[in-house]
Amino acid sequence: EPEVTQTPSHQVTQMGQEVILRCVPISNHLYFYWYRQILGQKVEFLVSFYNNEISEKSEIFDDQFSVERPDGSNFTLKIRSTKLEDSAMYFCATGQGPGELFFGEGSRLTVL
Amino acid sequence: QQQVKQSPQSLIVQKGGISIINCAYENTAFDYFPWYQQFPGKGPALLIAIRPDVSEKKEGRFTISFNKSAKQFSLHIMDSQPGDSATYFCAASKNTGFQKLVFGTGTRLLVSP
User: Fold this and answer.
1) Which residue of chain B is at minimal alpha-carbon distance from A43?
2) How many C-beta neighbours within 10 Å does residue A41 have?
3) Separation in Å, CA of A80 to nearest CA in chain B
């Protein structure tokens, strides 16, 4: 069964450091998303990406965040200067269009 | 208007019982309502979804009931099993290509043996 793959599964970083989270989408999917889940809380939308550009972003997705598809397959989320409050589980999700979104297993980010 | 309210926050059900989780939304533009199941340390996985042209959808032991006029929808798990113990999230989105999901706050279900 096709799946969304995320790396790393867990990253610990110091406040102010840059972090890149990576996602390999399901091969024929065209829509890509990042969501975030702070421990014990609900899943929150960060950004959607289609046709090599951001289609929508939330208030959380400020200038410290960026996304790209550097090689046409991987989909990355970069946090330029991490803050303590960025500690969360980050989920990549992909889809073919309106309908089911497939989520990866997440990357846990711990900012110290 | 973008919120989806979910209750209860936690639920304990005996094995074989019925688990019921409720959600309510405000935005009438929402027209896709999925339920996701999440096990600890895993990503959310789609369980079942409904669109507002039907009032009920059943897949195995899982049923979504949808009340468009009340802007409410619920998940019923029949014959609940210990393996169903997980966190359940309702969600909603507009039927566009970008599928930005607005999630409820989650219900932690424990099915006791």
Assistant:
1) B103
2) 13
3) 24
